[in-house]
Input
Amino acid sequence: MENLDVVVLRTLSAWRAAGKRALLATVVRTWGSSPRPIGSIMALCEDGSVVGSVSGGCIEDDLIYRFTQAYSSKEPGHQIPNGPPGFVKYGITADEAHRFGLPCGGTLELLLEYDPDAASLVELIAALEAGRLMRRTVQLKDGAVTLADAPSPEDLRVDESSLANTFGPEFRMLLIGAGQLTEYLATMALFSGFAVTVCDPREEYRGAWSVPGAKVVSDMPDDVVIAFKPDARTCVIALTHDPKLDDLALLEAMKTNAFYVGAIGSRRNNAARHERMKEHFELTDADLKRLHGPIGIYIGSKTPPEIAVSIMAEVLAVKNGVTLPRDMEVAQAKNLRAVVENDPGVLVCGTR
Output
């Protein structure tokens, strides 16, 4: 599955290219709890088709009703929306928050752009498909749009004259090894919006690969990491259990700005990997802090799909800037469990 923003923009572009009336809604401010973060977008076509999301569904339903009624002229008082962008708030009162399914005390403000320029959308989509990070700035007085390359991801900015939102490029996941666990993890990453590449020089593993949408390459993993040029929107995960394949790839990945570098393995295997890297490649304990392992969060997983859930959860937490409690780390949790089994009187997570 593609990045959701790209899907929204591409669909909106197709509607506008076909001459259909449409709007683009962007979450610009939230107060209290909100179902979608600032910068989230959705597009709405004159026929009621919608892509993307700005809430749990109730606000989308209200927008669909209001604007399809206006486009069809079925109900007096509903004017066809046009002109410069406009702001709309939902959940200002407790009654409205309840009506629109917002959490207690939640308020959401949207910017609605009416009939966005088709040519500008085409240009933006082409840049995103080329892997560029783009800043889209909308002038509030007339809806004019300017596009520019962004040096780094930025939070949405809005003031009295303009709104600037940053899009792309996709988050990427590079997986070393094409085994069964990789199939589950690749599938989860794809529906989470990652572009997935799988590297495995072993033909017997590549031949059984069965996940559409993931690119498969056969070069040596360390060469693939170098060519991949991991950046701050990239994660690299080694899953082969073979030091000849995993270690050199991990070494190259740790030299980059990848937001997550990790490897599968037990606590013993992880310790052995650290010792190899310190002995043969002169890495320090400080260098190895970048390397996640044993990867995943502790959920008692045993099967490949459960392990994939565990890994994907940790990757998303790191991506989203969430610091997980230490007792959710696999090594820490298993160490605590061993202590409890030897001394049942020890408290773990508030239970005996």
